[in-house]
Each structure stands twice: as structure tokens, then as C-alpha cells.
Amino acid sequence: MKDEIKKFAVLGHPISHSLSPQIHLLFAREFSINLGYEKFDTKQDDFLERIKSLKDEGYYGLNITLPLKFSAFQICDELSERSSLCKSVNTLTFLGKNIIGDSTDGRGLINDLSYKKIDIKGKNIFLVGSGGAANGAIYDLIQSKPKKIFLTNRTFTKAIEMKKYWKFFAEKNQVILETIDLDFSKKLYFDLIINATSSSLTTQHSPLQEHAFNCLNDEGACYDMMYGSQTPFMREAYKKTNSVYDGLGMLVEQAAVSFNIWHQLAPATENVRTALKNL
Ligand code: ATR
Q1: Three-class secondary structure of residue 125 per DSSP
Q2: Could you say which of 28, 136, 192, 225 would form a disulfide bridge with 105 (CB–CB 3.0 to 4.6 Å)?
Q3: Does residue 69 have an active-site annotation?
Q4: Computed over its alpha carbons, how large is the radius of gyration of the chain?
Q5: Is the C-alpha dihedral spanning 95, 98, 99, 104 positive or negative?
Q6: Which of the following is catalytic: 39, 69, 123, 158?
Q7: How many angstroms is it from 207 CA to the middle of ligand 1?
Q8: Ligand 1 atom showing the smallest separation from residue 66 Cα
Q9: 0.70 cut: is pTM over it?
């Protein structure tokens, strides 16, 4: 009997730029798995209907990207602790009648940092942004046991709310959370600055200015979760250090965790990173 092809897709809006199909097909090649992976442009209003029809059509799993990660979180019958706390789901699995949700963005970030040999245990992290991307990653940042995570946001009240929300989980993991203004003036020391804002989509200005980058330790690194082209944050960061990274590795690593959830196989990411850089 011929093996049935397992069907997957990524949903979001816009979606035409998504690299998820290429990534999953490259992973699948390593294990000679025959799978289908499509992308469907899906707006908020069409989300529930799309989920229902793909479930009925026998899709095995879906990746969910912006702006649907919270909606995906809301429709799950079962959630991992991580996605439940982050209130974000980027990986859905249809299991019988049930929809299982997980979030792999944070693990994608941590695995990419580890690939880049950036150790955050016991270190000071400056996390810029308090939206979906930051809240989706902080669970795994906290679990990696940095000493302290400084939180900031253009709308400062959101940084304060974020600290309040994650306080208990941070304390449980002996991690200190502290909020600081975007344009703080005191001298601080960071080992890693992460840009989790979407500012590069709308402006040519870096969300952080020179003073913040000057607080980076000599061995420190700067990481923008965005990928595609050099962002204003990255340009500003390069004035201080050469250890500046975009989020392409995070994209590949979060996909690898999704792949593992669906196929119980851990794909090698090195070749896929290279392939994407050459696209
Ligand atoms: P995402 O899911 O991509 O994080 P989001 O939840 O809308 O999207 O959050 C976007 C984040 O980028 C927010 O932290 C936002 O700051 P505000 O809360 O003040 O809106 C931040 N952001 C967007 N544009 C920015 C800019 N030009 N400068 C600084 N921060 C910006």
C-alpha cells in the first residue's frame, strides 16, 4: 500500500514571504519523509473557518504565524505549559477530535543562541519590546536561567504589565526581572540585547540608541528576532560590536522543534541555514 502523504501548512497574513514550506521540506528530505507543506494567506476573520476546513481535509499539523498566534492559543483543546503561559501558539497538531497547541519560538531562539555559542546562564539580558514576540520568547529565556532580564518597551506600561505577569515564573527560576525606560540613562551592563519589537517594519530608526549599546559588555551580542535584511537595530548594534545576528537561525530552529513535535525526529539545521542564506 502506498504511504499517505502527511499534509501540513502555515497560516498567517501576509504569508507569501514565509520560508516554512522550504524549511520543512528540507528537513523531511533528511529522513526521506514524503510530506506536503503549503501556505495559506489567512486573516483573523477567516481563521476559524480555515482551521475547520483543513482539519476536515485531514491536515496533520499547522504552523501559525502573525497575526494569528493568540487566536490559535484560544482554540486549542490541549496546550503545553509554555504556550499556556505565553498565550501564544505557533504549532497545531490535529489529534483525533482534539487540537493540540504548542509554541516553539522561544526554543527556536534558545537553540539558535546555543548554536551561536552565546551562553546566557547567569548573564544579563536586555529584552526590547513587550508584544507577542517578547512574551512568546521569555518563558524559554527564563528557563535558561540568566541572572537578570531587563524589560523595556516604547509604551512603558506594557513593560510593567509584562514584568508583573512573568514575576512568579521568574522567581520560581531565580531570575530577576527589572523594567527600564527605553532611553534609560544609568550605567547598566548587558551580555545580550534582544530586539523583539516590530519597529523595523515601520521605521528606519533603531528602537535603541547609542547609550544602550554602550552598556554591552565586551563579549556581548545583539540579536534581532527579525530576518530578511539588516535592520536599523542591527546597524546601530554594529557600531559597538561585530556579534550582531538576525532571526534567521531562530526561524530555522523553531521550525525544527515543530518538526520534532510532528515527526518525533530532530532534524539537522546546519544545511538548512546555509540553503536559506543562499536563496
Ligand atoms: P509582535 O507579535 O510582532 O511582537 P506586537 O504584539 O504588535 O507584535 O508588538 C510589537 C512590539 O514592537 C511592541 O513592543 C511595540 O511597542 P508598543 O507596545 O509601544 O506598540 C514595538 N514597536 C513597534 N514599533 C516600534 C517602534 N517604532 N519603536 C519601538 N518599538 C516599537
Answers
A1: strand
A2: 136
A3: yes
A4: 19
A5: negative
A6: 69
A7: 10
A8: 2
A9: yes
Distance 129 CA to ligand 1 centre (A): 6
* Domain definitions of the chain by residue range: 6-103+250-277, 106-246
pLDDT tens string 13-37: 999 999 999 999 999 999 999 999 9
- Please list the alpha-helical segments (H only) found in 31-121: 47-56, 69-75, 81-86, 105-115
pLDDT in tens, 219-259: 999 999 999 889 999 999 999 999 999 999 999 999 999 99
For the segment(s) 106-246, the CATH number from 3.30.70.120, 3.40.190.290, 3.40.50.720, 3.40.50.2000 is: 3.40.50.720
CA-proximal residue: ligand 1, atom 7 (nearest)? 131
In whole angstroms, give the CA distance from residue 246 to residue 83: 24
User: Do 6-103+250-277 and 106-246 have matching folds?
Assistant: yes
Pocket test for ligand 1, best of 126, 163, 199 (most atoms within 8 A of CB): 199
Distance 211 CA to ligand 1 centre (A): 20
Mutate to test the pocket of ligand 1, among 154, 160, 208 (most ligand atoms within 8 A of CB): 154
CB neighbour list of residue 6: distance below 8 Å, 6 or more residues apart: 33, 34, 35, 36, 60, 262
Predicted confidence (pLDDT) per residue in 174-219, tens digit: 999 999 999 999 999 999 999 999 999 999 999 999 999 999 999 9
